[in-house]
Amino acid sequence: MELTLFTAIWNWFAEPLQYEFIQRAILVSALVGVVCSALSCYITLKGWSLMGDAVSHSVLPGVVLSYIVNVPFAVGAFIFGLGSAIGIGFVKSQTRIKEDASMGIVFTGSFALGLVLISKTPSNIDLQHILFGNVLGISDADMIQTFIISSITLVTVLIFRKDLLLFCFDPTHARSIGLNTQLLNYMLLALLSLTIVAAQQTAGITLVVAMLITPGATAYLWTDRFDRMLLIAIGIGVFSSVLGTYLSYHLDGSTGGSIVLLMTLFFIFTMILAPKYGLLKRAFKIQDAKKMVSTKLQESP
Amino acid sequence: MPELSIQVQGVTVTYNGNIALDNANLELRAGSIGGLVGPNGAGKSTLFKSIMGLLTPSQGRVVVNGQPIKVAQKANLIAYVPQSEEVDWSFPVSVADVVMMGRYGHMNILRIPSATDRKIVQESLDLVQMNDFKERQIGELSGGQKKRAFLARALAQKGTVMLLDEPFTGVDVKTERTIIDLLLQLKQEGHTILISTHDLGSVTSFCDQVILVNRTILAYGPTAEVFTEDNLTRTFGGMLRNVTFSTPTPHN
User: Fold this and answer.
1) Touching check for A179 and chain B: CB below 8 Å?
2) What SS3 state is found at B235?
3) A166 and B76: CB-CB below 8 Å?
4) Which of A177, A182, A226, A231 to mutate to test the interface with B (most CBs of B within 10 A)?
5) Do B59 and B11 contact (CB within 8 A), yes or no?
6) Residue B249, class by beta-carbon neighbours within 10 Å (0-12 exposed, 13-18 middle, 19+ buried)?
7) Chain segment A6-62, per-residue pLDDT in tens
8) Which of A224, A231, A285 to substitute to test the interface with B, most B CBs within 10 Å?
9) CA quadruple B238, B241, B244, B249: dihedral positive or negative?
10) ipTM
11) For residues A192 and A156, is the Cβ–Cβ distance under 8 A?
């Protein structure tokens, strides 16, 4: 009985691996999981979650134009991603419009341009694949692009992780000790755009933002130290990405959806059970405080 | 070391066409403590930001230790203790992490702390009596401990100019004493200290220089000469109440 259960689990994991497309999908998802999760720690602490959403939607026309002029999709996506981030900054600083409205205007405008371009372009671009990802059918060229972009992003984050952290925490101090905060600002925006481009094949541009928020936000509830937060986020990201890819194979369903769903479950579990910042812990704390107050009241006549 | 530590020469700062600071001039000697006094919105923080090089004046210039502000920044000359409201206290960093950030300007690009960096961080923590709390997340500190943690970061930076923005807001008596003692000691060692405060009592108790700000620098100089009823009325207009002169105002 136990043996058959074990065999069943073993097969659940081993059986898909006989197909090359599954091996590739797992590899790509895991790598994308690492990159997105690492960056998600900075994005959530900096308060740029909505910026991630805006940039991810803005890359659509870039992807379409890349196919039209026959360059790697990453090139167009990156240009439109970073361009929209700069555009948002421009609208916010040069007009009296607030940041949320600036984001809303720029990313919907860009997304709309993408939709019109697709509808007017007679080609084999599959809107479904851009919006929701298609990692099970990823081509060689796209896989190579994902590897290159992920490596660049990961190495940059590793080298500048302390400067980026200081920039998120205290930009005034960063500037007063001579760091170029303008450069760090654009570096973080460029990393955000690159990560979105890398994850586009896995989660699609509608769900990629979840991979850029949820792991970091979940890890933030587990710990008070940034280094640990980074490791926990990466752990959650890789685990969800790999398991989500398996799940989508067995369910014959959306890969991006499965990955993000697992991440969300991790978050809910954490929100309730986290040792220090979980809801249960908070409930106990409130109860303890009430008890203490009532015993004190009884003691003093 | 040049005798003049901070020089503000004809600095004018404009925001969206509005003049926040108009033709401000100031000279502060090395080894002095200057109290920056003025009503809210008078341009105190604009002056602070100009001296730190965070704002580029539309006219005039700031010179620190005889060097242009950009050079002074790179040389880590200017340390800054922020107002408590400016800090994200839920950020996942410990007190020791924050103090180590004071050393970043002295490290290589990867910011790997050397033995010297660790030693200086330790000394800075000891100076503000925060060694027992160094592993705490910064949000788990009292108001006074928070202030001392950031003071330790400024000390660790080993600059010669220190700017403190409202250092006595929301702190306990022990912290206030610790800060004042440290500042007096730094002054003895030849540091220049600039404090922005609305607590006029603290100005007379330990600042040897006073800088009166309202849209421009109205007056600056030794406390005894500049901290007069006439000058304060000029700075605050009708807003000044209940300040006694000649004797230091008690405060706790």
Assistant:
1) yes
2) helix
3) no
4) A177
5) yes
6) middle
7) 999 999 999 999 999 999 999 999 999 999 999 999 999 999 999 999 999 999 999
8) A224
9) negative
10) 0.89
11) no
